[in-house]
Amino acid sequence: MKTSTALFIFFLLVSFRSTAQTNKPRVLDAKRTAGILKIDGVLNEEAWKDAAVMTDLVYFRPKMGAKENFENRTIAYLMYSDEGIYFGGFCYERSKDSIATQLMGVRDGYGTNDYIGVIFDTYNDKLNGFEYFVTPLGEQWDAKMNPPSMDGDMEDFSWNGVWKSGAVITDSGWSFEMFIPFSAIRFGKKDVQDWGVNITRRRRKTEEQNTWNPIDVNVNGFLTQEGIWKGLSNIKPPLRLQFSPYLSVYGNHYPYNNPAEKNWTSQVNGGLDVKYGINQAFTLDATLIPDFGQVQSDNQVLNLTPFEVKYNEYRNFFTEGTELFSKGNLFYSRRIGGSPIHRYDVYNEIDSSESIIKNPTESKLINATKISGRTQSGLGIGFLNAITKPQYATIENTSTKEQSQLLTDPLTNYNVFVLDQTLKHNSSVSLINTNVWRSGKDYDANVTAGLFELNNKKNTYNLGGKLAVSNRFGYLSEGKTETGFSHELHFGKTSGRFNFNLSQERTDTKYSSDDMGYFTNNNYINHYLWMGYHFNEPKGWYNRINVNFNVNSSMLAKKIAPVDEKYQSAGFNVNANVQTKKLWFFGIFTGYNFKQNDFYEPRQTGWFFKRGSNIMVEAWAESNDSKKYSFFIDAFTKTGINFYGQFSANISMGQNFRINNKLSLSHNLNLSPQLNNMGYTYVDGSSDINFAKRKVNTVENTLSVKYSFTNKMGITFRARHYLSTVDNKDFFILQHDGTLKPNPDFHPDANQNVNFFNIDMVYSWQFAPGSFINIVWKNATQYFSNDVESRYFENFKNTIKSDNNNNLSLKVIYFLDYLTLKQHVAKPDKNLK
Predict the structure, then answer these.
(1) Based on the structure, what is the number of domains in the chain?
(2) 695: domain range?
(3) What is the distance between the alpha carbons of residues 497 and 12, in angstroms, rounded to a whole number?
(4) The whole model's pTM is what?
(5) What is the pLDDT of residues 176-218, one digit of tens each?
(6) What's the CA gap between 601 and 680, in Å, rounded?
(7) Last residue of a domain, one of 200, 233, 266
């Protein structure tokens, strides 16, 4: 603790001399138009003469600061009207063949296309922005830009606005037009406003990327280097009231073992999503009777770790516009509608005369609402609330056939509240509160955290941190409240060729954010040091090189009786990656982990397992992905030093075939063999903590096919087979000193052979702005055995022969905008076609 405090003081005393860009931002006067335009990609209307012109773009990749070539020059036009913003222009090329085009057929999939886009920082706080992009084939993608983290700017591509675009390819390049209604963007209420603005263009065949306002890649943040769109006057957002009613039909087939059960079941659902603009800045989103049955299947795995698997979120409501709720890493949206908290308790509640007929795997969401936005003064406010209905397991008496129900999940309310105030110099302070309230006797939970991010005036140094308090009400057997604390503090240099970050994390033994967030363990003090150096000027054979060095250490915050140990782990590693002039990427990694005291693998408090030190080596390569054929390969190995001969590897390979502009295929293969892996294993009826030396072999095989009919219609096919086998060779009993004692007993039931196979096939057609028809076929198959089968294709055959759960669904979503409906009722729309 004394050493880390001294280091923090030393770095805080470092001179804040800036290496940041000092050029003044470019300024563009805001021009207003009352003209009539047709958004088709052809700039032939007189109204475009009212627009301000943006030219002389500057490259930031591969050669930073270079002026764009005349034959590849860009001319863009920007103006606004009472209804919204117009952005158009021309991207010159030597010929049509120089333009990279690939039909994606879906929103937000830019693939290997060229593109151009405009970025608005409507509050001019250099922290929050809106991006709108179009490809030469007229496909759209958009995103919200959020405050940068240590990894750079954060882009939320799940956010979708409803706007119009068009593009046309010619012999000398391609032209484009956009209309972004004020309903598709958020801004303040000043009579005269100055917005941050920039435009960026990317040419995929050369990976050249340029911007209107120059970008220095050595400076922290993209929005910190924006230009100014000056003098927008008397812009007032329209009433933002939008509805997305849906109708879905499901047919499900599963060959139940009980012949009395129906193989086919069907379901018809209807519901509504509502988006309402409370004022210029704040929006209410609500989903009533939600239906998430068409989301992508989870990548299920065999979990041998002591921690739960963290799955990706695919439900639109919980991915779109949730950047405020992600602050502090306290919100894991999969908790809402996740596994019932007493699902596995059922097995301990029944006796030998009873059987479980039904035990739901997830809780059902009744409704969810969120409010988010930011005031003119920079105060961001977020509120999210969701309610799940009670879930019951059905128990049947095997003799009398009488059935009863056992509560596995009570009626539960989930709530997140966030206040985020932006400050000068791209700084901010935040307050986050998460709350889980459960009806009945189950405990409730609350976590409150304060965050701060402070940057110096020239945006070269950053100091930040978090202080959190957790409470579990009625968690203890006496019904008392358990309160825990956690903090994090970091300091670093964020601009320039040399950067660093030094941080400390600490939690006590009672802190937990598990009820609303993803949380693995508490009771630790962790220290990290990251240092990196960037070579961003192309020279010789390379475009850029990045090198970084990492050191980490972990201790228990408090000893766990009867163990007289606090040390957990320590290690260091070095990474380097490079992009060549031919747009290939290469990387290497090497690291060393010292001996470790693992307090989590035993699965019981007061025990630990002594692991040996190990050496890690990794290398990877990725070819130019703008080519019709591209691939990547990544090979990682970890070798134990004098520790049971332990060795593990991970080899990932992927390849992409772009057959033509409409059809593409991709294949990914992941191989993870582990020899002499040492880990906890469950032995039925044993009172000891059992470990095994085992051979673990995991194979993940994924094939994806994509065909696009038009820029608004496409079909995707994704098949994934996952295989993992655990072949136990020797068994051991964990001792109190962390060592293992050989156990001569062999437990064949501890072996595992696990297979998951999924197909997700999706046809999607955007038949009108914001309106979709989706047809989805999903197939799910599982195969489990205690007999280890090492042959891959034999496993695949056994999996395919197992019972298949097939689901076919049709969903129609229709987007309705109140103002559009009002205009159509009043008179035909002659303005925007």
Answers:
(1) 2
(2) 652-833
(3) 19
(4) 0.88
(5) 999 999 988 988 888 999 999 999 999 998 889 999 999 998 8
(6) 6
(7) 233
